Amino acid sequence: MSISWPLLVILGTLLFDLSEAKAFFVFGDSLVDSGNNNYLESTARADSPPYGIDYPTHQPTGRFSNGLNLPDIISEYLGAESTLPYLSPELRGEKLLVGANFASAGIGILNDTGVQFISIIRITRQLEFFQQYQQRLSSLVGPDQTQQIVNNGLVLIALGGNDFVNNYYLIPDSARSQEYSLPEYVKFLISEYKKILARLYELGARRVMVTGTGPLGCVPSELALRSQNGECNPELQQAGDLFNPQLVTALNELNKQYGSDVFVTANAFKMHSDFLNNPQDFGFVTSKEACCGQGPYNGLGLCNQFSNLCPNRDTYAFWDAFHPTERATRLIASQFMTGSTEYMNPMNLSTILAMDARN
C-alpha cells in the first residue's frame, strides 16, 4: 500500500512534534566517535574490554572512553538521547529526528591523515553522509521540515589533533614535515578547515561548535614517547599554540562572511589545561598517567584486556594514551555549557539554547 503525499506530510509533522529537543550532529575524530568505526575494517577501534567499563551497559560501544563521551554528555544537556552512529542499523525512523554522529576515529582535516588505520570515514565522506542523512530524513518528514530540523540543529566538530599526532609528527621526517615547516603546515590546515566549515554551512548547519586542539604534548602517549621528566612535549605544545589562535581568526572571518554567529570556538586547550596543570584541585590523583595502558605513563600500546587498569577511573584525567575519562570529559562539557568567553567564544551552549528558545 502506498502512502499519499498529504498523509506523509501529516505523519512527518507528528513525528517532528515528538522531538522537542534540538537535533544534534557530530563530526570529527575519536574524541567524538560513538562507534562508527565498529562497522569498518579499521584498526582504530574501541570495541573490546575494558572500553565501556563504566558505560551503562558496562560493555564496549566503540567510544574511546571508559563510559560516556563528549557528544553523550552534550545530548544530556539538550535533554535528548545520545545520537547514534550514522552507520548503525538502528538509525532509522524516529531515531533520525535526534540527529546523527558521523565521526570516525583516526581522521583529520587532511585526507592523508590516518591512512595507517586502513578504513576510516574521512571528513569529506562524513559531509557526504550528512547530505545522505538529510535525504533519508526528507523521506520521513518532507524537505521543508528537514531543512528546519537541520538549520535549528546543533553541530559539534572536533578535528586537528590527528593532523599533528598521526601525520606531521607520526614518524621522524614524515612526508608532511618534509613538505612544510610547522608554521606553514598550520596555515595549510586552517585553510583546509575553512573549506570544510564552509561546506557544513552550505549543507544547512547554523549552530556549529568547533573545538581547537587540546594540549597535544601532554597526553600519556606523548609523555611516554617524547618526555624525559614528565613535562609536556614543547614541540607538540607549540603546534597547538599556533593552530588554535589561527582557528579563532578563521571562525571570526567566516562569521563575518555569513553575517551571524554560526561558528563558536570551543577552547579545548584551556578546558584540558585547567585540570592537567592542577589535577588535585579537580579531584584527580594524576593527570599524566593513563588509567588503561602499558609502559611509561601507561602511554604505550593499546588499551585492552592485558593492560594495566586503574581501579577508580574518576581519579584519573586520562582513560587511555590519548583520551580523557568520562569524569574529565564532564568537566570539559561543563565549560561548553556555562563557560566564559575564555572557553566558548562568542557564546556558550546555555546562551545558544536560550537564544534559540526565544526565536
TrEMBL record:
EC number: 3.1.1.3
Enzyme class: hydrolase
The entry's keywords: Hydrolase
Domain of life: Eukaryota
Protein's name according to its UniProt entry: GDSL lipase/esterase protein
Protein's organism: Dioscorea alata (Purple yam)
Lineage: Eukaryota, Viridiplantae, Streptophyta, Embryophyta, Tracheophyta
